[in-house]
Write a structure and sequence with these properties.
Layout: E1 2-5, H1 9-19, E2 25-28, E3 32-36, E4 46-51, H2 54-63, E5 71-73, H3 76-84, E6 90-92, H4 97-107, E7 114-120, H5 127-132, E8 138-148, H6 154-161, E9 167-170, H7 173-185, E10 196-199, H8 202-208, E11 215-218, H9 224-241
Helix pairs in contact: 2-3, 7-8
Length: 242
């Protein structure tokens, strides 16, 4: 089985390694270039830090030497990245902003201090708004920018042109929108008719529905392990069919 991973390079490399034991080869085709932005991260008086992506965890690690504050992550992948950056008090929600807001409400009192949300220039969902209505003081700090790439890489275009791909893995609607633009620009939209779109959530699947795929499959859980399970099921099916 041969798939395209559209995550940022750091996340895609690790995911590709995890897919190897399943007999899955990967071409890594990041849809965004991640740039850390100069910003002041003021943590005085904060009771916790919120991160909504692995990129946010890496930006947080670069912006501050403090590792003692609790970190609440949107999912297991961002939590694992935060731990790898040296943060020891890390908890993970179930993969989306609503779950993260619910985790905050279970663990922290609105009157005990502000929350610092480390974010990119584009955010998914309204984490600050969903918490502020319950009395939380949320300070959103923009520490990185995910810039869409301008074209498919030669290896990605070749995989599509030669019709060797079995699937493309998508982790956000914004990633899908960029992919749609790039395959259209390269005049390769028609090559997807034999390819499966593997999507992290229903929102991602809805974005992918604007292209003609062999099939669109959605993870049962909005995290990386859910996506791996989704690919594993397809790999086993392919073995049986062969």
């Amino acid at each position: 089985m041969f798939v395209m991973i559209t995550r940022s390079r750091s996340d895609a490399d690790r995911l590709a390694e995890l897919l190897v034991p399943l007999g899955v080869r990967s071409v890594i085709e990041p849809m965004f270039e991640i740039e850390t932005l100069p910003a002041t991260l003021e943590l005085a008086g904060a009771q916790a830090i919120l991160i909504t992506s692995a990129n946010g965890a890496r930006a947080l690690g670069e912006a501050s030497e403090r590792r003692e504050l609790p970190v609440l992550a949107v999912g297991q992948q961002s939590a694992a990245t935060a731990r790898a950056m040296g943060f020891s008090n890390v908890a993970a929600a179930d993969g989306d902003v609503a779950a993260l807001a619910a985790l905050v409400r279970r663990k922290f009192n609105p009157t005990a201090g502000k929350l610092v949300h480390v974010a990119g220039t584009v955010v998914a969902g309204d984490l600050s708004g969903s918490l502020q209505k319950f009395g939380y003081d949320v300070d959103r700090v923009t520490l990185y920018e995910a810039r869409p790439v301008s074209a498919l890489s030669p290896s990605g275009a070749t995989a599509l042109t030669e019709n060797t791909l079995d699937g493309v893995l998508f982790f956000s609607p914004r990633t899908v929108h960029t992919f749609v633009r790039l395959v259209g620009k390269a005049d390769l939209t028609s090559t997807l008719i034999g390819v499966t779109a593997y999507c992290l959530s229903p929102a991602v699947a809805a974005a992918a529905s604007h292209l003609s795929w062999r099939e669109i499959r959605t993870s049962a859980r909005a995290d990386q392990m859910g996506m791996i399970d989704l690919v594993r099921a397809s790999a086993k099916h392919n073995e049986v069919s062969a």
